[in-house]
Every structure is written in C-alpha cells, then in structure tokens.
Specification:
41% helix, single chain, three-stranded antiparallel beta sheet, Rev_trsase/Diguanyl_cyclase, 3 helices
Length: 61
Amino acid sequence: EVKFLGHIISAEGITVDPAKVESVLQWECSRTVTDIRSFVGLVGYYRKFIEGFSKIVMPLT
C-alpha cells in the first residue's frame, strides 16, 4: 500500500486517502463565488469516487 497524490494504491485498487476526506468534511461553508470555485476544484479532483458528481455540483457552477 502506498499513498500517492491523495490516493491510496493497494492490491485491492485505488481509494481516497481518509485524511483528504476529513479535510473536505472540515471545509468551512463557502461564502463567495471564489470560495465555491475553490471547493468545487478540490472535490473535483476526487470526482471519480463520487457517484453523480456532475449533478451534485451543477447548481454550484
């Protein structure tokens, strides 16, 4: 098992690093358009792990 670019790669496959998930959960509520864009950019990096990502963020863009 190895951590690489926010992912954990193992014999079972690729998963998100739990520390990165925690940082997203602790993200303060966005109050400006710039903050929202930053947040969408951050979580967009992990979009392949989020089912229906595009539908979820569509109202934010």
